[in-house]
Amino acid sequence: MNIYDFLNKNKSLYERHDHPAVFTCEQALEQISHLPGAKIKNLFLRDEKGKRHFLVVVGYNKSVDLKALSALLDAKRLGFASPERLKKYLDIEPGSVTILALLNDINHNVELIIDKEIWPEEAFQCHPLVNTSTLVIAKEYLEKFLEKTGHEVRLEFL
Questions:
Q1: Contact 29/39 with Cβ under 8 angstroms?
Q2: Fewer CB atoms near the end CB (10 Å): N or C, the chain?
Q3: Which range of residues forms the domain containing residue 46?
Q4: Would you tell me how many other CB atoms lie within 10 Å of the CB of residue 100?
Q5: For the domain that residue 64 is a member of, what is the CATH number?
Q6: Residue pLDDT, tens place only, 85-129
Q7: What would you report as the CA-atom Rg of the chain, rounded to the nearest whole angstrom?
Q8: 19-65 pLDDT, tens digit each
């Protein structure tokens, strides 16, 4: 399903801002630093054997200690998932990792981990499955999105 069709069908309000393709948080800041909402970084990770997959959401300027996160999640040797895994599980390309890609995780293979430090924000900046746009979406609609897609949020201090 198209992300805009899904959001509109579920009466989710958002602001859309188109821009040149961005592949890093630094590039995104050059394009959208003026927009409201939490600026986030999304990491798509897998465990050592590739049996568990995680979408980790943190503030854009935060570093994530993968060794400590592995222990926290009881997952051996977390590492970045390959572009092939990204396509298989979230049906997106590198540079477009976003919480909204959970729309494509219909088998619930991806565990969502969100940093407790950013969860109190009122709105979030998210790619709409491509890195040439950014949506500003209120937390209440993001929660509604996760409920509709059947994804639970695991909040942790990362």
A1: yes
A2: N
A3: 3-156
A4: 26
A5: 3.90.960.10
A6: 999 999 999 999 999 999 999 999 999 999 999 999 999 999 999
A7: 15
A8: 999 988 888 888 888 899 999 999 999 999 999 999 999 999 999 99
Q: Which residues share a beta bridge with 45?
A: 54, 80
Beta-bridge mates of residue 46: 53, 79
Structure tokens that stand for 136 in this block: 């500003």
Q: Which residues have C-beta within 8 Å of that of residue 118, sequence separation ≥ 6?
A: 38, 40, 57, 58, 59, 124
Domain count, the chain: 1
Contact 141, 13 (CB under 8 A): yes
Tokens of 120: 């109190």
DSSP string, the chain: --HHHHHHHTT--EEEEE-S---SHHHHHHHHTTS-SB-EEEEEEE-TTSS-EEEEEEETT----HHHHHHHHT-SS-EEPPHHHHHHHH---TT---GGGGGG-TT--EEEEEETTTTT-SEEEE-SSSTTEEEEEEHHHHHHHHHHHT--EEEE--
